[in-house]
Amino acid sequence: MSWFSNLAQAYDRVADIAGVPDQHGNVLLPQNHMLQKTDICVTLDCEGNFRRAEESELRIMIPCTEDSASRTVAINPHPLHEQLGYLALDEKKRNAYCRQLDAWSARHIKVEAVRRYTTGATILDDLRRHNITVDVDECDENGERKPEKKLKEENAKIIRLFVRFSVEAPILRLICGKTLPWLTCGKSIAIRLKLRNICCVMLQG
Questions:
Q1: Cα-atom radius of gyration of the chain, to the nearest Å?
Q2: pTM (two decimals)
Q3: Which residue, 9, 43, 96, 174, has fewest beta-carbon neighbours within 10 Å?
Q4: Which sequence spans correspond to the domains of the chain?
């Protein structure tokens, strides 16, 4: 048996704990995931409508492809959370990101919400309204034009800003793909758990 087969079997034996941090914060990454430092959190509702945005550094697990996990210069978008360059600032990168997202967005309502939002191409304006810098000021505090090297560095920094998406959805919508107008995430935990059990039975039946 090859070393690769041994490695695959070792992973399979502990696959049930993948994605679950231990008491020290260590985590076994699920397949097709990687750790990524994110800079901005964009919150949407389950219909893909923008709610808020904030600058908030957080290291999270994100889905990735084999190509995106090791990308350098080539255009290889991550499946969901992405750099601002891929989401808005580079047309070729944005098109590649949107095509890939279209291919799997129907699998989960939260992914579909992100697809709807990013298709609208309003992220730059939304971030500006929340006082998040997405534009390079060509002049310094004295009104003089910055050196080209400085401008390129600042522009590259903005392009690399990593955005993570958070989708707020009613509990029934998350579990069953349906929602009721009276049930939102603000209802009691007891009600949510009871409905979760009902929905799980429906899904398994």
A1: 20
A2: 0.78
A3: 9
A4: 32-169, 170-205
